[in-house]
Design the sequence.
C-alpha cells in the first residue's frame, strides 16, 4: 500500500508509534544496563566488600585479643583473670561468626579461608594455654620468649588474613572496572539510541511532510491560478487520503467554474441558448449567471420581436407607398404578410364606412373553398375580430374545417388567426 493512500491521521499515528517504539527500546536497553550495574554493585557488596569488612573486623578482634593478653602480666586476682578470659572468648565467638560469613561469600580459594581459620584456632589455643598457666599461678613462666612467640603467630595469622583481604580488594577493583566498562557501554548505547531516535524521528517527520506538503503546495498554486482567473491548469493529484478528497473537490469546483466561464463567454458572443448548471440553491454564481441568461433571453426576445415588427412594417410601408389600386395593394400586402409570417393560406378584408368587411385579396385559397365575399361585424371569427378590434387565434382546428392544397395533395391547417387593422 502506498503511503499517499493512507489517511494523514494514520500516517501521523504510525510516525508517532515508531518514535514511541524507538524510545521504548531505548528505555528497555537503559533498564537492562541499570540492571547489570545493579547486579555488579550487589555482587561487589555481597562478596568483596563483605569479605573485606569481615577481614577488617577479624583483624580488629585479634588486636583486641592480643591487648587483652598483655593484661595477664598485671592481673592481681582471679576476677581480673576471669574478665580477660571472658573477653577473649567473646572475641573468639565474633571472629568465628565472621569466618563463617567469609566462608560463605569468599570468591577465591576457600582453602585460604580454612587455613586462616585453623591458624586462628591454633593461635586461640595458645592464648588459652597462657591463661591456664596464669590461673595455675605460674605467671613467672610467661617470659619474653612466650611474648615473642605469640607476637610471631599473631603476625602469621594477620598475614593469612591479609591474603584474603588483598584478594577481596582485587575482586572489588575488578568489579569496579567491569562496572566502569558497563557504564561506558551504557552511556555509549544511550547516546547512540538518542542520536538514532533523533535521526529516525527527523526522517519520519520529513517523510510524512514530503507526502503532504508537495500536494498542498500544488493545490495552493492552482488556487492562486483561479484567483487570477486562469482556469486552464488541472490538479494531477490522485490519492485516497484527505488531500485526494481535497483534489477531487477542487477539480469539481474547477469544472463548475469552467462551465460557467464557457457559458459567460458564449453569452458575451451572443449565444443565449447555453444554460449553466446550478449545483445547489447556494450556488450564488450559478444562480446569478442563470438569471442573467434568462433576463438576456427575455430581452433578446423582446428586441427580436420589435425588430421583426419594424421590419414587417417597413416592408408593408414600401408596398403601400405610391400604390393607388386597392386590389393590387391588398394582394401585394397579403402575399408579403403570408411570406413574412410563413402562412400557407390567407384572406384580406377591407372594412367599409358602414362596418361591412369586403374580401379584396386571397392567398393560396382553393377555388372550391371560396371564402365569403362580405362579412358583417360580429359575424363569425373574422367579424368578431373586427368588432373587438383584436387578434383572435384558433388552435385544434377540426380536420373538415378547411384544407390547404398543393399540386401534390392537401391537408387541414393546424392553426388559424383573424386580425382587424384600422386605417390609422
Sequence:
Amino acid at each position: 500500500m502506498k503511503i499517499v493512500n493512507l489517511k494523514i491521521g494514520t500516517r501521523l499515528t504510525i510516525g508517532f508509534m515508531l518514535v514511541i517504539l524507538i524510545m521504548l527500546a531505548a528505555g528497555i536497553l537503559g533498564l537492562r544496563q541499570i540492571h547489570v550495574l545493579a547486579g555488579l554493585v550487589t555482587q561487589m557488596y555481597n562478596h568483596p566488600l563483605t569479605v573485606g569488612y569481615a577481614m577488617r573486623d577479624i583483624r580488629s578482634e585479634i588486636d583486641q585479643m592480643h591487648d587483652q593478653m598483655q593484661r595477664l602480666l598485671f592481673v592481681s586476682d582471679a576476677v581480673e583473670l576471669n574478665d580477660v578470659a571472658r573477653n577473649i572468648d567473646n572475641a573468639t565467638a565474633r571472629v568465628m561468626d565472621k569466618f563463617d560469613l567469609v566462608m560463605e561469600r569468599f570468591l577465591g580459594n576457600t582453602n585460604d579461608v580454612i587455613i586462616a581459620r585453623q591458624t586462628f584456632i591454633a593461635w586461640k589455643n595458645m592464648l588459652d594455654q597462657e591463661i591456664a598457666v596464669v590461673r595455675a599461678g605460674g605467671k613467672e613462666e610467661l617470659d619474653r620468649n612466650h611474648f615473642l612467640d605469640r607476637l610471631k603467630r599473631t603476625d602469621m595469622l594477620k598475614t593469612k588474613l591479609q591474603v584474603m583481604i588483598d584478594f577481596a580488594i582485587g575482586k572489588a577493583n575488578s568489579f569496579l572496572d567491569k562496572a566502569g566498562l558497563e557504564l561506558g557501554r551504557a552511556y555509549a548505547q544511550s547516546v547512540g539510541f538518542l542520536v538514532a531516535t533523533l535521526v529516525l524521528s527527523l526522517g519520519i517527520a520529513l517523510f510524512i511532510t514530503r507526502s503532504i506538503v508537495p500536494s498542498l503546495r500544488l493545490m495552493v498554486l492552482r488556487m492562486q491560478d483561479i484567483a487570477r482567473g486562469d482556469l486552464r491548469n488541472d490538479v494531477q493529484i490522485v490519492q485516497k487520503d484527505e488531500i485526494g478528497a481535497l483534489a477531487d473537490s477542487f477539480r469539481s469546483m474547477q469544472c463548475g467554474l469552467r462551465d460557467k466561464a464557457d457559458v459567460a463567454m458564449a453569452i458575451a458572443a451572443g449565444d443565449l441558448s447555453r444554460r449553466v448548471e446550478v449545483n445547489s440553491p447556494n450556488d450564488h454564481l450559478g444562480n446569478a449567471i442563470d438569471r442573467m441568461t434568462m433576463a438576456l433571453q427575455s430581452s433578446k426576445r423582446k428586441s427580436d420581436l420589435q425588430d421583426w415588427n419594424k421590419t414587417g412594417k417597413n416592408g408593408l410601408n414600401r408596398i403601400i407607398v405610391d400604390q393607388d389600386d386597392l386590389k393590387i395593394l391588398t394582394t401585394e400586402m397579403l402575399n408579403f404578410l403570408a411570406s413574412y409570417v410563413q402562412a400557407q393560406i390567407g384572406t384580406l378584408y377591407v372594412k367599409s364606412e358602414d362596418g361591412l368587411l369586403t374580401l379584396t385579396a386571397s392567398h393560396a385559397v382553393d377555388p372550391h373553398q371560396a371564402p365569403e365575399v362580405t362579412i358583417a361585424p360580429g359575424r363569425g371569427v373574422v367579424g368578431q375580430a373586427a368588432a373587438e378590434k383584436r387578434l383572435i387565434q384558433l388552435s385544434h382546428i377540426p380536420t373538415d374545417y378547411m384544407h390547404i392544397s398543393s399540386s401534390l395533395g392537401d391537408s387541414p391547417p393546424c392553426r388559424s388567426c383573424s386580425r382587424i387593422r384600422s386605417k390609422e
About this structure: The first strand starts at residue 346 and ends at 351. The chain has a mean pLDDT of 78.
